[in-house]
Amino acid sequence: MSGxxxxxxxxxxxxxxxxxxxxxxxxxxxxxxxxxxxxxxADQISKLKTYNIxxxxxxxxxxxxxxxxxxxxxxxxxxxTALKILQSNAEQAELQRxxxxxxxxxxxxxxxxxxxxxxxxxxxxxxxxxLAAIGYASQxxxxxxxxxxxxxx
Length: 153
Hints:
- The chain has about 150 residues and is mostly helical.
- It is built from 2 helices and no strands.
- The longest helix is centred in the C-terminal third of the chain and has 70 residues, at about 80-150.
- The relative contact order is 0.19.
């Protein structure tokens, strides 16, 4: 047993090297999963943008129709002020569509940036694990070399 005792340190260093590699791989897989989720969220935001614009268009058409009916019912011709009201509504609707689209594009871009950052973080985690493994393996090699110099090996 006492003959094997000097090899415990290098053996533990090799085990630590293996574990560091596995931890790096695990952390990378977690980061890659986070990146995938963020990309899926960006896709959902884009789909939601289309839905919101369509829903807004529907509401706007209802508003314009109701406004026209009320104007005509009250005996007003669709000219002058009445026409300006409808035109103003149309202009405001176009601005609102732009706001909906802009906000969705910004949110989707943020999610894509999150995905890119998560992916890069995963690569960094993997490299950190690899570097730690190299450090532990080097420790084991150094210990074995020192044991050889002292005559234990």
